[in-house]
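Example record

Each entry pairs one chain with its bound ligand, 2-acetamido-2-deoxy-beta-D-glucopyranose.
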Amino acid sequence: MPSISSKLLILFIWACLSTLSSANQPWFWAHNCSSPFNPTHHPSPPPPTSPTSRTPPSQSLPPSPPRSRRPRTPPSQQMPSPPPPSPQLPPPPPPPRSQRPRTPPRSRGPRTPPSQQSSPPPPPPTPPSRKIIVGGSEHWHLGFDYNDWALKNGPFHINDILVFKYDPPNSTTPAHSVYQLPNMRSFVNCDLGKAKMLANSTQGSTENGFEFQLKHQNPYYFACGEANGFHCQTGSMKFTLTPILQG
Ligand SMILES: *[C@@H]1O[C@H](CO)[C@@H](O)[C@H](O)[C@H]1NC(C)=O
Ligand SMILES: *[C@@H]1O[C@H](CO)[C@@H](O)[C@H](O)[C@H]1NC(C)=O
Ligand SMILES: *[C@@H]1O[C@H](CO)[C@@H](O)[C@H](O)[C@H]1NC(C)=O
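C-alpha cells for the complex follow.
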C-alpha cells in the first residue's frame, strides 16, 4: 500500500508541477491541485499529456494556500512546516482545519492521548513520623544502658521523633534533663561545656514527654546534663545515633 500511495503522490506532484510551470505560477498559488488522497473518492491524477487543458490559475484570485500545500508534505509528517514567507500570502490557516483524514490512524492517534497521560502520577505519600520512646518502657533514668538501647533499636530515620520521658525531681527522684553534645569527644568524656540543653528537668514529665525530631543525617549525641556529668558518665544516660534517609 505505501508504494501505491507514494507512486500516486509522485504522479500527482509531477502533474501539479507541469500545470504550474505552464501557468508560470508559484506552487502555492495552484490551489486547484488538491486532495488526490481524499478517501471519499479515488482520484486519478490529472493526465500528464494535457496539462494545458486545465484552467490556469487566475492572477486576480487571492491565493488560498491550505489545499495546495498538502501534497508536498510527506505522509509521515504530521504538521507541515510553515510556507515560505511571501508578502502576498495571507497568514496560514489554523492547523486543525487543514487536518485531513489522509493518514487517519497515525495522525489522529497521538493527538488525543496526551491529555490523559499529562497528569503526573501522584507523589508517593511521605510516611508518618515514627515516635520512639527513648529507653522503651524504661523511659529516661539512671543506670540503663541507652547506647545499647540505641544500637538495638536502630536504624533511626530522618523525621523520626524521639520521646524522652522522666519524672520531675522530688526528694527521692533525682532531676534529669536532655542535652545535645557537639561531637564525639564531648560525648565520650561527658563534657557538657558546649552542650545545648534540649529539655529541662520538668519537660519530660508532661503527658507526651519531651519530643525531639531527627532532622539531619549527621550524628546526634544525647546525654542527661544533671549532676555535672555524673548521670551521663556513671549513670550511662547517653547515646548516639545517626539517622538515615527513609527508603
Ligand atoms: C479552480 O477550479 C475551478 C473549478 O474547477 C475554477 O472555477 C477556478 O477558476 C480554478 N482556479 C484556478 C486558480 O485555477
Ligand atoms: C517522687 O516522684 C516519684 C515519681 O513521680 C513518685 O513515685 C514518688 O512518690 C515521689 N516522691 C515523693 C516524696 O513525692
Ligand atoms: C522548664 O521549661 C519549661 C518550658 O520552657 C518552663 O515552663 C519551666 O519553668 C522550666 N523548668 C525549670 C525547672 O527550669
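Residues 200-203 surround 2-acetamido-2-deoxy-beta-D-glucopyranose (ligand 3) (CB under 6 Å).
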